[in-house]
Design goal:
Elements: H1 7-13, E1 17-26, E2 32-37, E3 47-49, H2 56-68, E4 77-83, E5 93-103, H3 106-112, E6 120-126, H4 135-149, E7 156-158
Organism: Brachybacterium kimchii
Keywords: Hydrolase, Magnesium
Protein name: NUDIX hydrolase
Length: 160
């Protein structure tokens, strides 16, 4: 008969997963708010990594508040994107949760957004054709979220 492993040993043996929460935040013209971090060569949707003990929706809310100075309710889950681990670069698998942050008038965004100077170089409202600024994976994720918002499907689990 096999002995049970102590919890710590068992849990250390399981695959690690990095999770994140991000949002689709639109203006009244359907443009999507994207941000240019100073630590990446491409733009991103507002969001970030889930902290210990935090769920992905709370993470998305916190990140929007920290990065943009906006305290917005975070709505429904639009999609979950799964990324396999990449052993050659040491990256564990990932689960990226995308939420609806609603529609905020462009004039309010222009007046109220305060980009986090330590992380962001810029932000903009992007038309759907400009979402390629997010890179291939980010653009696909944003377009998938918009498709759900336009009624094309329900919450979806997407592989890369």
């Amino acid at each position: 008969m096999n002995e049970l492993l102590p919890d710590a040993v068992y849990f250390d043996s399981l695959p690690k997963v990095i999770t994140s929460g991000a949002v689709i935040l639109r203006d009244e013209h359907g443009r999507v708010l994207i941000e240019k971090p100073n630590y990446r060569d491409h733009w991103l949707l507002p969001g970030g990594g889930v902290d210990p003990g935090e769920d992905a929706r709370a993470c998305a809310h916190r990140e929007v508040r920290e990065e943009l100075g906006l305290d917005l309710p975070i709505g429904r889950l639009l999609a979950v994107h799964w990324m396999p681990s990449r052993a050659r670069v040491g990256a564990p698998m990932g689960a990226h949760f995308l939420f609806d942050a609603g529609v905020v008038p462009a004039a309010r965004l222009e007046a109220d957004v305060v980009p986090q100077a330590a992380e962001l170089d810029d932000w903009m409202l992007a038309d759907e054709e400009e979402l390629d600024l997010l890179g291939p994976w980010g653009a696909s994720r944003a377009r998938r979220g918009l498709a759900v918002l336009h009624g094309d499907s329900e919450v979806d689990l997407l592989a890369p």
